[in-house]
């Protein structure tokens, strides 16, 4: 009997844990090392206001459920391990300037909007646009779980489905160009601008929008929701599966460097000076941490470092959590008797987005913020404070995504002062829609690019690790001269958001890597047999 | 009749343990691939998360808890309370009824002293079984002696073990008197390995008598539910359920809570010195009984051990243990000269909790342990901390869920050649 292959996974993000679960199940001896005291990377539930005496929980970074693949959800029995996603109702309301809005409840056909510029043909075009985008998502969806889909193949699949407009724009145009083929209202374009992680007027935004369309919650394709207990429950469920399968998860265990002999990683050196050897090393941390820190002394990886430094994400995002003294009322929502559940989006005018697409990558704060907000405590009582809260009688939390902020302020890294600027800007932007918000805020927690770097060890400053633009999609989302998930080292692999098919809490990257390793092992075993027979 | 049925609600056919995956959590087995550890009733091996927790405390966050206002100290205080919540939930009791102690022996002594000294009166009687673990027996003799010094004579009456290995219920019934105030017993016996039928004992002695239960061999082996067990005090050790040595728990039922008087006081004790003596103002059993600096890393490790057990599932652990016990018994049955101690070997139950004791007519138990030790098979022989009654020593094989049938096969093979 041969001993099980030993695997070290650096970083216990959801993809690292997914790989751990699959590999441990397959009999590998798996150790996961997480620098933080909390498992989960960006997929965590935490209590940031505990120091103020409040026990409310927030999904600190990733906060919406939708893209975790149902195949993985089922294969790993995550439901049995406590993962309970749910759909919110309504879905969303997008707030535009001047009290205009577009409201989407869960019930189809019940939506309403008050947008002055809207014509009947816009309404019809808008329907067609989303219908086509959802079809495109359904076409791409199956391809994520094997890592061989190329941009050419995607275009061919779209053409085959007669989605010519999308095929023409997915890797060569912007969402704005595409939208113009469906609608004329700039306000609708501003609404659509909130549905892609990139800038609506730049290349890559079409794919970003489709990527987000590959969501599925509670059996409903295209639907986003939330998780009872916060996104950390995904982590907890994955961790349980991994552990039950024999994986050992170590928190508060920082890796200092990786040692190599030629093309093999021979040992992991930890911050406490200890060293340990493994047959296989998987880096779930972002590639900037891997190559600029853990392998920084490696001349052999200079090509990779050059590639990474040329392509460092210039745009980041931020998340703010507000502990509230009482539940606020948004003016427009109050007017239409909205229950303040689901997602509340603030969409800046199209021109402001276009302007930001030029200034933000150059290091300037956007003049107008694009916001996505929700009150998770309103939907899920388990997120709210369980005992009487000293500081916030309401105990509700408002979670706010700020879609795009510069990764660097000018040439400098974010400072605490910049966090304060962002905080003030965000409150001011919400005040436009909810005048009473400022006086209801008891405490704020700003997850800025600075916090992402310092607390979450995200050297790329981007939850995507690499941009989600055609330059880095499908066959191009690999390190230079490397196959997907592979590195210049024979026994070192990567499975973070910078790998195929990209970011979001999909668990696909970890899954695909594990399957890749298992297939490789099977192939090796086949090759070994004849040699043994000869011997 | 004997009762070594495992909890019915736990006998879920789907709760099977993946032993190979389970063993991976215990670094001792990868560091010593040839180790066969059969002394888990003494102490269990430790999973990596327990080891990590201990190391983390000593290397990253060593401070005292409950004393200072700086962040490390307050964090440790809250971690200890979080652990208490976790353990209380695990035992299905309220947090205020759970006391951290130094181990089961400490718990059993606390139980005897803090209840016995202030509640037993001249002429009262205590019932216990001299073949139980000395830690469950001697503290009551201690109480007896201390009360004697106050002029109170307490009688201690012995009930016995039935030949199959559980308590002789007839002797319990026969000894019962209107002056019986306390009964001490084991949940699962540490040598005989049977469920000692606490429900039947309660039925015999009635509702009023205080029962102190030694659950050292049941917590972490089978579901122990403080609210379902008809007892007043439950003692257990951390180190027999995967945690570090130096921590244990004592559950005190709400109905006797106001009768408890602490026997040790210290800096954190909720006591005021008044003209009339000491005045207590404790809101919980742990405020009343815990004092001095707690064994912080061991307590934290107990929290991790509970996490670990819950992760694997107590039902899966129990099924595996039961399967191993029956398998071992069936393999031993055929060995010539083997004499079973009371327990599964005599009663022939179809379930068990990992403990099988026996001896051979032709070789002493102690000699066998040396032979087995040479093969790196660790088992224990001796009096097993019970009162000697002139019988030969038994060899005790005590397993946990990380043991395998293959290990049992190896043990039996060595025993076979050593005794033939």
Tally of DSSP β-strands of chain A = 22
Helices of chain B, by number, come to: 14
Largest sheet data of chain B: 7 strands, mixed
CATH fold-level name of the largest domain in chain B: Aspartate Aminotransferase, domain 2
* CATH first level of the largest domain in chain B: Alpha Beta
Derived from helix and strand composition plus strand pairing, the structural class of chain B reads alpha/beta
CATH superfamily of the largest domain in chain B: Type I PLP-dependent aspartate aminotransferase-like (Major domain)
Residues in helix, % of chain B:
25-40%
Rg of chain B over CA atoms, rounded to whole Å, is 22 Å
Extract low-pLDDT stretches of chain B: 1-13
Quickly give the structural class of chain A: alpha+beta
Low-confidence stretches of chain A: 531-535
Task: Report on this structure.
The complex is a heterodimer of chains A (535) and B (420). In chain A, helix 1 packs parallel to helix 9. Chain A is 34% helix and 18% strand. Chain A has 18 helices and 22 strands. With 535 residues, chain A is an alpha+beta fold. Chain B is an alpha/beta fold. In chain B, strand 9 and strand 10 form a beta hairpin.
Short description:
The complex is a heterodimer of chains A (535) and B (420). Chain A has 535 residues and is of the alpha+beta class.
